[in-house]
Amino acid sequence: MRKSTFVALAGIAAVSVALTGCGRADTGAEPEGSGAAPEAGFAADATIGVALPDRTSENWVLAGDLFTNGLEEAGFTGNVQYAGSSNSVGDQQQQIQSMISAGAEVIIIGAADTAQLATQLEAADAADITVIAYDRLIQDSELVDYYVAFDNFHVGELQAQSLLEGLEAQHGDVDTWNIELFSGSADDSNSAVFFDGAMSVLQPKIDDGTLNIVSGQTTVQQTATEDWAAENAQNRMDTILQSSYEGQDLHGVLSPNDNLARAILTSVQGAGRDVPVVTGQDSEVESVQSIVAGVQYSTIYKDTRALVAASIEMAQALQAGEEPTTTGTQDNGAFEVPSNLLEPVIVTQENAAEAYADNEDLAPLTEG
Ligand code: BGC
After folding, report:
1. Tens digit of pLDDT for each residue in 120-135?
2. Per CATH, which fold does 17-144+303-342 belong to?
3. Ligand 1: residues within 6 Å at CB?
4. Nearest CA, atom 6, ligand 1
5. Keywords for this entry (predicted)?
6. Beta strands 345-348 and 298-301: pairing type?
């Protein structure tokens, strides 16, 4: 949509009086890059496209149903599509293209690859369609209008804090904790953000010798898990245990999500070792059960219902010709994208019942 070009310009020339008359910049009171007001709304039953990646974690599975039902309830014509796992990037590119051809007013994108949508964003812009990046920030383009997600840097910080807390609780008598780091898929811009958030907490502890990364693999590239695939994490953990841990204990593992956490635990337990402190993310059913049983140490609760609701609210605001709610901006390499970031919650055995109290699927898992 053209207004995103305006947002980018506003970032460069926020003080320029030449911008008066263009949406909210003329109030002079808005933070830089907080978004331009849409020129007008659109039909109440307009088509809203939702392009989701392949189902690499339960949150994506949940999101599809929530979008389908939520868009219908809001009176829109929803068009929700998933990319398939064998050709996720190509599938998604094609799906977005057909949403554009079908006359969608807004396209909400959970990118399969956050760097491979340039052509589709150009086409959406030419058709004056608003693009909302969902959960994963599409990179290096000024044609992303809004971003709605949980605060992913904070997710990483919380994971790292819980890792340290678990190490203290379970291995308080050990001087140096041996740990390993895992990160997500390199084609997902979230992976580096989670990792950077975690390293902002862990690096000082590596520097002062509290933590020892025995494999020596400390960068986001070295620790990446292609396609977020469990088998890749399990294989990497197997290899590290064989090559670096003979005669040594493994005390903890930073895992970026639950699916990989369970794969890492499978590897460690398969090697006949004690269960280390392992972090996670997504509050997947099996991981919540594992946390309650005292195996996986922590997860992150990013309530998918809240994220989908926030996205649909953005579409409703646009439909009404109003400015959607944003909490700030996020840099996507091209500009500061107006963003609505929600707060993630860390969950351990201790607070699981409280954290999931209002979630009818997860709360029962914490009872008894
Ligand atoms: C999401 C995580 C998810 C991962 C793999 C990330 O972009 O933010 O919640 O675990 O993708 O699906």
Report:
1. 999 999 999 999 999 9
2. Rossmann fold (3.40.50)
3. 56-57, 59-60, 135-136, 184, 188, 190, 228, 257, 281-282
4. 190
5. Signal
6. antiparallel
